[in-house]
Design goal:
Elements (H helix, E strand, L loop, with lengths): L29 H6 L24 H20 L11 H21 L1 H22 L4 H11 L1 H34 L28 H10 L18 H38 L5 H7 L8 H29 L3 H40 L2 H5 L1 H8 L1 H20 L7 H31 L23 H37 L3 H6 L6 H18 L6 H22 L10 H28 L19 H7 L3 H9 L3 H59 L1
């Protein structure tokens, strides 16, 4: 048996000459065939420096120069090769490359300490990232959900985990900036006593006399009584300067932190969306030939991956069918489709208008109903009146989304477009309902914006009905959050589980009437965004609301997981997860922007309560910041005031404009490069088709001879 020849790395270098071309065979030469390629027709677009096919064979001098340049490029590429196990080389070649790389590494380490420490730092960073990935909660559960119910359902739980992280961070910030300084400042403060000299009346949140257990339960649900004067709400905190500054800064810190994390998530989702919508990764060949993971071990992982690929192909086929049907419509069919869409959108606008008017009426009527003697005598009826805005908002959010789901398929859009429309209508319903509630409360606090009204003239707000209006706002957000959780649990226990049992016990016609239950991703996602928007609005007036929302989301994850695996079936129609990975954070950004409006308006324009809170006695909540800055050293004051002058703003604007123009130019150049590469890929495909046809033609000609 012959010994295999040893591998010589030098054979790949420029020391050896390249083999001469073979003698031309009978028939057309290789140069003439290559010159007939489709890419040769585009030679004039490539510039004067590009040689045509076969030009290396025309002159000995040019050929030697081209061979030398090619050998130098090859040698350079060999010096920058990937790891040995990834190279398509024989085993002896890999072993020689690995030994050469090891020798170079030893020489590099001995010559430079900086390179050694850089390598150690990079390896430590990679290990840290791997460790953090192993600490991700519910990783296996999310993979199982994606394999059994599709990537769209998995995206809901991914968003839930992301919002849970946001609330944990917000809870830590609030605890460190409000709770900890308040406790370290001394004993808990008592409730404010009556002050006859105060022009804004008195405020006594603690009930007097014996309190029964039902009253305590109602206080727990409404945020009144013993909870009203507790660290849960704004009015509990004392007017200490450092506490007031920390209290205000924590609100801005939570907003900025949420904005940064949501933008980071949106950018990663945008990349997936652009790739999915561009058609590069949505072809069936990509799903068939590139989607499988050959590193999977175990039947469970294999089946999960098979289901994920099946759902992706199902989405592609469904959307391709809808687009094909839309492409062959006649003018009359287009007119009919658009007429139906206009009528359905008018119906949606009418339903939304009725819902908003109902929320406004419920909020305005709450104060009047609370003054009725029957309501004051019956605690249960009083609790119902207190929850009237929350009940109405939850009822509207429960009734109208199914109507939107019924309307969306009638408009003739693709599944992904239907999801977007349902999300837009539902988010407009939920967030606009919250805005209507806040507008009604603003009307009560500021006397409709009339500072000269009798109730608001003395203190700048309606001190007779709302002696501590910040706590009242916090109570409303607390009730919305609590009622949303109770509604979700009630729907699951009283509707979904009985419906599942009914279908299990009566599998006949009654089960067909009830229908199979599917996990409605748009409604569930908008429920999360609505709850998070409520927390962003209420975190200033109810500092512990992020902590309560953390517990709520943690409970909600396990409840939804239980309902998903025990009640729901896989969706009959799926949608592309890359779209929702970008659209969900975008809607979340919209919720953050909407929530910032009432908070900033309260901070800058509405006078704080004179009888409660850390900002009592100030003309506005923001007025505490300039007073705190005035107590700093003069150098620090000059620097902070310089940040607000034109001398700082104008250069910053110019630098930002230059960076923006540079980024746009760079993006345009990358876009042109990508377009050119795509055209080259298409041309290569045409070349392969041309060569295949020539090969078939030549083989046929040889066969006839």
């Amino acid at each position: 048996m012959e010994e295999s020849p040893a591998w010589e790395p030098e054979a790949w270098g420029p020391s050896r000459g390249w083999p001469a071309p073979r003698e031309a065979r009978a028939g057309p030469s290789l140069s003439s065939v290559l010159n007939e390629l489709p890419s040769a027709a585009t030679l004039r677009h490539r510039g004067p420096g590009v040689l045509p096919w076969g030009a290396l064979e025309e002159g000995d001098e040019d050929r030697e120069k081209s061979i030398q340049a090619f050998a130098e490029v090859t040698q350079k590429e060999l010096q920058e090769l990937p790891p040995s196990r990834e190279l398509p080389w024989p085993m002896q070649a890999r072993r020689a490359h690995r030994q050469s790389h090891a020798r170079n590494q030893v020489a590099q380490d001995s010559g430079s300490r900086v390179a050694h420490w850089a390598l150690m730092l990079r390896r430590s960073k990679e290990k840290m990232q791997e460790g953090l990935r192993t600490l991700e909660p519910w990783a296996w559960t999310l993979k199982r959900i994606g394999g059994q119910f599709g990537a769209g359902t998995e995206s809901y739980f991914l968003l839930l985990r992301f919002l849970l992280l946001l609330n944990v961070l917000a809870s830590v910030v609030k605890a460190c900036t409000t709770l900890l300084p308040s406790w370290l400042g001394g004993a808990p403060p008592g409730s404010p006593g009556p002050d006859p000299s105060s022009p804004c009346g008195s405020y006594n949140p603690r009930p007097q006399g014996l309190i029964t257990f039902p009253s305590q339960l109602f206080n727990l649900l409404s945020g009144e009584g013993f909870l009203e004067w507790s660290p849960l709400f704004y009015g509990f905190y004392q007017p200490r300067r450092r506490l007031a500054v920390a209290y205000l800064c924590s609100t801005f810190a939570i907003g900025i932190l949420s904005l940064v994390l949501i933008l980071h998530r949106s950018v990663s989702g945008l990349k997936q969306t652009l790739l999915a919508e561009s058609g590069v990764l949505t072809s069936y060949s990509h799903r068939v030939f590139s989607a499988w993971d050959f590193g999977l071990c175990g039947d469970v992982h294999v089946r999960l991956r098979q289901r994920i690929i099946l759902y992706e192909l199902q989405v592609e086929l469904e959307e391709a069918l809808v687009r094909r049907q839309a492409a062959v419509r006649t003018l009359g069919q287009h007119a009919r489709v658009w007429s139906v869409r206009v009528l359905l959108n008018l119906l949606v606008v009418a339903l939304l208008g009725a819902a908003f008017y109902g929320v406004y009426w419920a909020t305005e009527s709450t104060v009047e109903l609370q003054e009725w003697p029957p309501v004051q005598q019956m605690p249960l009826l009083k609790l119902g009146v207190d929850y009237l805005p929350s009940i109405f908002i939850s009822g509207v959010n429960f009734v109208l989304p199914p109507v939107f789901r019924f309307i969306a398929p009638l408009e003739g859009y693709t599944r992904s477009r239907q999801i977007v429309l349902i999300l837009l209508r539902t988010v407009f319903l939920r967030l606009a309902s919250l805005l209507v509630l806040l507008l009604s409360l603003w009307n009560q606090i500021t006397c409709g914006g009339n500072a000269e009204a009798e109730e608001c003239k003395t203190c700048g707000y309606n001190y007779k009905e709302l002696p501590c209006w910040e706590t009242r706002l916090g109570q409303e957000m607390y009730k919305l959050l609590l009622f949303d959780l109770l509604t979700g649990i009630a729907v699951m226990l009283l509707i979904q589980f009985p419906r599942k049992l009914l279908c299990g016990l009566c599998p006949g016609a009654l089960c067909r009437v009830a229908g199979t239950q599917e996990f409605q991703v748009p409604d569930e996602v908008l429920g999360l965004i609505y709850a998070q928007t409520v927390v962003w609005v209420g975190s200033f007036f109810c500092p512990l609301l992020p902590l309560l929302n953390t517990a709520k989301f943690l409970l909600l994850f396990y409840l939804k997981k239980l309902a998903l695996f025990s009640i729901c079936s896989p969706a009959s129609r799926n949608f592309r997860a890359s779209m929702v990975n970008f659209f969900f954070p975008l809607v979340l950004l919209l919720g953050l922007a909407i929530s910032s409006v009432p908070v900033l308006y309260s901070i800058f324009l509405i006078p704080p309560s004179k009888l409660c809170g850390p900002f009592r006695g100030q003309s506005s909540i923001w007025a505490q910041i300039p007073k705190s800055i005035s107590s700093l050293p003069q150098i620090t004051q000059n620097f902070l005031f310089f940040l607000g002058t034109q001398a700082f703003a104008v250069p910053l604007l110019l630098i930002s404009s230059i960076l923006m123009v540079y980024t746009l130019a760079l993006a345009n150049s990358y876009g042109r490069l990508i377009s050119e590469l795509k055209r080259q890929i298409e041309m290569e495909a045409q070349n392969k088709v041309f060569l295949a046809r020539r090969a078939v033609a030549l083989s046929s000609a040889n066969g006839t001879l």
